[in-house]
Amino acid sequence: MGGGGLDLAAMKKLIALVALALMSQPAFAEDAPKWSLAIHGGAGTLDPAQMTPEKRAAYEADLQAALDAGAKILAGGGDAMDAVKAAIIIMEDSPLFNAGKGAVFTWDGTNELDASIMDGRDRSAGAVAGVKTVKNPILLADTVRTQSEHVFLVGKGAEEFAVSKGFAVMPPEYFATPARREALERLKAEKLSALDVDHKFGTVGAVALDTKGNLAAGTSTGGMTGKRWGRVGDAPLIGAGTYADNRACAVSATGWGEYFIRVGVAHEICARLRAFEEFRALEVEGGEVPAEVLAKAPQQIADSVMADVAQLGGDGGVIVVTPEGQAIFSFNTTGMYRGRATSTGVNEVAIFGGEEKVSATPDH
Ligand code: ASP
How many Å lie between the centroid of ligand 1 and the Cα of residue 313? Predict the structure, then answer.
């Protein structure tokens, strides 16, 4: 090539540089949601025949209220942490879900609440377990995060901390509902397991991406009916039931807690996503990873971790939000009470598998 033209080697270098620049752009730069929110109200072996229109309407109304509360904050430019708390408080206050009011009963006939929350900005986290007097355990978990030097407080100590920070002491009757009491009585009388009487896990959770690019995750639960000996599940365990890291994703889980603890579900999903990103960075020189493949990675990773849970014998589900704004569900049960909303107009709640009307994956 003569004159001022580029020779072949320079041309190749230029193409490689352009490819590199394109690859380092966010995968969904054009239509990626600016904010994104997913919520759950528990997964389980739900039977469509048992779901009367009235029951469905009641669940959908409370899920929608929780989704709207979080979405309003995110749409107004608010923080992912605030959106997560707002959505969870509504579900804790609803007697329909196994968190706050309406929590399941322990073997001893009490309601013992667990919750955790994590900020993806700095991975600061707070958690409480075995709390009996706090109306909104998610707020206590956040206060542990912001006003103590600890991450995890349990039982009486957590309650003393709550009082010292001005939390009202609620009487046991506030949390107790007849349906949950009846489930405990049936479990004892018929020697059933928690899964037999409840058919579903009613834990609640929320994950969010805000317009500043920050991720947050929170989970709140009463645990499993008939739990005893101070049993604690995955919900308040950072890394098992809850995890958020701006570099990877935000996750909240619901399901048979023992299995989620063993797999370290929430952290496992985030860790695999980070590993995928690292691998992608290595791949840049070798060739392009098609956008469709990139877009599918978070769903595939979440499904694969849930398959791992199933392989051990556990069941349940997760909600995941990614830095690109994907709002993902993955569950190995027949249903999961859930909802998602994004700045691109997705806004829906669903109960059984495959009910989503729109994909919250930006390339679809
Ligand atoms: N994961 C919770 C636990 O094991 C139960 C649930 O999801 O409802 O305590």
Answer: 15
